Amino acid sequence: MKSRIFWILMILVIPFVSAQEPVYVCPMHSEVTQHEPGQCPICGMDLVLKSSQKMTMEHTQHSPATTSLFEVSQQQQQALKLSTTTATRQALTPKLMVQGEVQWAENEQIHIHPRAKGWIEKLYVDVEGAEVKKGDPLYQVYAPELVVAQDDYLQLLNSLQQVGSAEKQASFRQRGRTRLKLLGMSDEQIMRLERTKETRYTVDYFAPQSGYVTALNIQEGMYIMPEQSVMTISGQQALWLMLDIPQRYRSLVETGQTVHIASNSVQGHWMGKIDYIYPDIDDATQTIRARVPLQVASETLAVGSWLNAQVEGATLAPAVVIPVSSLIQVGQQNRVVVKTSDNEFTVKSVKVGMRVGDNVQILSGLAAGEQVVTNGQFMLDSEASMQGLLPDQDTTMPMMQHSHGGMHD
Question: What is the pTM of this model?
């Protein structure tokens, strides 16, 4: 009788034991599982049928002091197209990718102010943006004070013979010339006055340097005064590239760093060095500004255009380095799958440092020389999660992400 009851119970229980429900898992987030097809609520990827993987990994028994390992046969590794790379110890050199605006170099700009009150009788440069050469006439002015100064100088020349010594004559003559120069007359104009002995009621003013008229604030007939800036001349070969540096990268930027510059619209490559970092934050962009002098003609790089800039950062301290693609990021934990032998693997929790291009620093949790899985690691991580072989969740900070600019090799 007891034997009959036993076989009846076995017939009822066996179907439930053998008919296991299918398990679907996210390849990227192993903690996401369910018993029907669907998509991962985190990344949107289609869930993979775990039973279709046919991965019968076995937990290898080790002492409690060692990391839990699991086995994956060579056939299963080939099916996953599994690949690995060796963690190396090296010193990365970050390169910050930012943008910058081309501006006139302020230290190569000259603001033209009249030296005496008067009226603009003639304007030789009548359009903003005009190119001028050093010595070109800019405007002609009638200034009563300058007329009086010329008359006084001519009277001085006529009376020099009445002055005692030649030394005193030279001193008076120099004082008269200095007065005319301070009022804006050139040496050539003063020499002509001495030669012709004729006062000129209108006097030309000339460009003190070559460049472009980047500000024009006068028109013919206007009354001008010394406190007024009538025009600005900016140097032709003197430009600044004003870099916008996100605040989080401030510690990576120093004066003297080399900057590689390129344009999306102009063919060419230019180089410069950061010579000044402004202490204030730009109100509009909320970025730090860094200045890069450029010895490039404005015909090549137009003022106001935006360029791509790559700032070479200081070399980081040597650390263990792996490809970014081998990292598995889940919540507040970063993990890697390590191949310990031909068929044995383990999952390790790691602390990451700076990302530079396609590489990332590993500050702890991994040693140089270990083999990290670079393809198929998500499926192995998922299976390890099912086997309960993942490292304990910790508070390791996730890898730094960049939404503006970025660090590259």
Answer: 0.58
